[in-house]
Write a structure and sequence with these properties.
With 268 residues, the protein is mainly α. The protein contains nine helices and no strands.
Length: 268
């Protein structure tokens, strides 16, 4: 690691995207408004039931406006997980149901006890080493295999997509807790598998209300993509500022040393 980068880590650590920009806030409001309006329209047109409407409305608030390490996040997590569990079981999506009710709730309770000094953002600079990446890949694959076998045992019609979605959701949640930037890779995979899963469910059962879950996960995907780009851009800008500041400090040191040497020579 070069000196400029070490300076950046020492003095700018934990400051990545600490404050949301106005454009970012506006984008979030717009995204929530579009999906919420669509969900309300579906409900008023009697194309979905109340549970499907609520899971979308409350689910977006949970993901967009609550933090992992506060009590409000725990309340929303429990509420969303219980509704999601019921909906998933109704459509035989058992692994997702299990993840929400048996993993997300305890995990959110655990996360609520942690103190994130720099907020609830994933640190884009914090990457896993090669061995850690291999371990998490093995973890995601192993969980997916276990969920797949579980789905076969209980007679799920969506064994593969359900298992892949559940395995990646668990892995991404663990990475987010540690705020590794690798979280986004697993998160994007989890969301894509979840979108494909609920599209399959909607097509299988002919229930238009299920497309609200597709819209919800699609909104998560758009939101996380935007967050990743914002964080990456902010990290680059802050790194360049740190390098410039480091160079200023080094130049000042050179000037001070020259002045000291000049005064020393005069004294002699």
């Amino acid at each position: 690691m070069n000196s400029a980068k070490r300076f950046f880590y020492d003095f700018y650590d934990g400051q990545i995207v600490k404050e949301e920009s106005e454009k970012y806030k506006l984008f979030k409001i717009l995204l929530v408004s579009v999906v919420s309006t669509f969900a309300i329209f579906m409900y008023l047109a009697e194309l979905c039931n109340l549970a499907e409407l609520v899971i979308v409305e409350v689910g977006m608030i949970w993901n967009f406006y609550t933090k992992m390490n506060n009590k409000l996040g725990v309340v929303f997590c429990i509420f969303v997980s219980m509704i999601y569990f019921v909906i998933s079981c109704n459509f035989y999506v058992y692994s997702n149901a299990l993840v929400y009710i048996a993993f997300y709730i305890p995990f959110q309770l655990f996360a609520s006890t942690k103190d994130y000094a720099s907020g609830d953002f994933v640190q884009i600079k914090k990457k896993m080493n090669d061995w850690s990446q291999i371990i998490y890949i093995i973890l995601a694959v192993s969980l997916s295999v276990i969920f797949y076998m579980f789905n076969l045992a209980v007679g799920s019609m969506f064994a593969t997509l359900d298992a892949l979605s559940a395995g990646c959701l668990v892995a991404s949640a663990l990475l987010r807790n540690e705020r590794y930037s690798d979280y986004y890779t697993f998160r994007f995979l989890a969301l894509l598998f979840s979108i494909a899963l609920w599209i399959s469910v909607a097509m299988q059962y002919g229930d238009p209300g299920v497309y609200l879950l597709v819209a919800m996960y699609a909104a998560y995907l758009v939101f996380d993509s935007a967050t990743f780009l914002v964080q990456k851009s902010t990290y680059v800008n802050q790194y360049m500022q740190a390098v410039e500041r480091y160079q200023q400090i080094e130049n000042q040191k050179v000037v001070e040393e020259k002045i000291k040497a000049y005064k020393g020579s005069k004294a002699n």
